[in-house]
Amino acid sequence: MKKTVKSTVLVLLIACSLVQSYFLIYRLPGNDPVVKSESDYVKTENMGTEMKAEELVFPAEMIVHMGAGEHTLFYPGSTFYKLINTRLQGRLFDGFQRYDASGTNWNTIRQQNEGIELRFGKGVPVALLQKVMQISNDPLLQEETINRILIYNMKNEDKVRAFFFSSQGGTVYEATNADLTVQDVKQQVGFGKEWNPSYTLMDSGYYVPDGKTEALQVTLDTGVFTTDQMQKSLFSDPSITRNIREKDGSEIYTDIKRSLQFKQNQNWINYTDPAASGGTDNSLGKNALSAVDFVNQHGGWDAGSGGAYRMEVSGESGYSGDSKRRQDTVTFQQYYRSLPILDLEGFHYGVMRLDMHQGTVTSYERSLIYTKGRATDKMIKKQLAGGKELTDLIAAAAKDRPISWLYPAYQPSLTDEGLHLTPVWMLVYANGESEILQ
């Protein structure tokens, strides 16, 4: 009898020990494990908002070609931009054929024909474009990034043509079965005829407004994410990180495997994980989607000012060989209303930049500054130069260097009142360099 009692007590003690161990390992409610693998991240609450990939894919600008050398531009958020973009998203593009882009004078087509052109900056993977447009799954387009889409009515013919331009240059894909009629395109072009100013297409493919362009100068209230918040977000166990202070005033936190650099004078971080390893899928689409998930879980998006982010993806420049070894860069460009916010050498802001390999982040850069709400009482209307005044400024800055793009943007600066955004013209050269027109 005594042995039976002792055995029963022993069993109960062992059971209690197991239950206690369980509750030490798993926190309630929710069964969130306290013990995590070193590859896990802890999501920090109450930082930025979350966004879907579909919200991050949209054209940087929309050009309306009205024929006879007449053009106008719409920027994100404007009424006609949203109207045309919504209509195009409902159309199917199918039956793709590949051509050499260098065999066609595209500027002549833009000058002579009515049409719509969408520009996506450095480019967006087809897999991402398919989330916002009805593009068929065509083997020709696998692993392609598209930086422009040109849709136009052929002059004197009852036919619509739709071309998708590869970001790599030299290649263009025609959707021979585009679900668009000549009348569809005419209706969309008609929106441009009601809009001012008109734009002139320059020889190298950029557009200059014939008159002044109106934009807002604004100051936004700001806050700053703390060092502690970012550490908790990016390290599985911040308590084991050690701090290294650099001579330039920046600080580095590391757990031996990963490092997180804080540039205090710029409120900017650079997180690196050189040992990161993912799966076997190193597709552009997979890397882009993984980058969106990463930002959602580790800092989120600054949407306090009612702004947006636009995604661009670029593969490793000039890379050849096994695509599984390629590293892709995913950039999220921040907007305030219709215009992008510049990332400056002296004041890093306006972008999040991630290097991706096989669906895993190896580098993550972003600002710690976030905005708080709208600033309707701190807005001033400004007019940007146009016409001859603007072309003279361009000529003085470029000094015969070939130009690929001109666009309005916000130049940010941090003041005692908050984040000050000043509208400026941004000039981009063919070699990728850029400068603000003063």
How would you characterize the overall build of this protein?
Strands 16, 17, 18, 19, 20, 21, 22, 23 and 24 form a 9-stranded antiparallel β-sheet that branches. A 7-stranded antiparallel β-sheet has the order 4-3-7-9-10-11-6. Strands 14, 26, 27, 28 and 29 form a 5-stranded antiparallel β-sheet that branches. The chain contains 8 helices and 29 strands. It has helices spanning 2-25, 79-89, 106-112, 126-129, 182-192, 227-234, 284-297, 387-398; strands at 26-27, 32-33, 61-67, 70-74, 92-93, 96-100, 114-125, 134-135, 145-153, 160-166, 171-175, 199-201, 207-209, 213-220, 222-224, 242-245, 251-254, 259-263, 268-272, 308-315, 328-336, 339-340, 351-357, 360-367, 369-371, 379-384, 403-415, 418-429, 434-437. It has 3 domains: 53-195, no CATH class; 224-367, TATA-Binding Protein (2-Layer Sandwich); 375-437, no CATH class. The protein is of the alpha+beta class. Residues 9-44 and 317-321 have low confidence and may be disordered. The radius of gyration is 26 Å and the shape is globular.
Brief characterization of the structure:
With 438 residues, the protein is α+β, with helices and mostly antiparallel strands. Helices cover 21% and strands 38% of the residues. The longest helix is centred in the first third of the chain and has 24 residues, at 2-25.
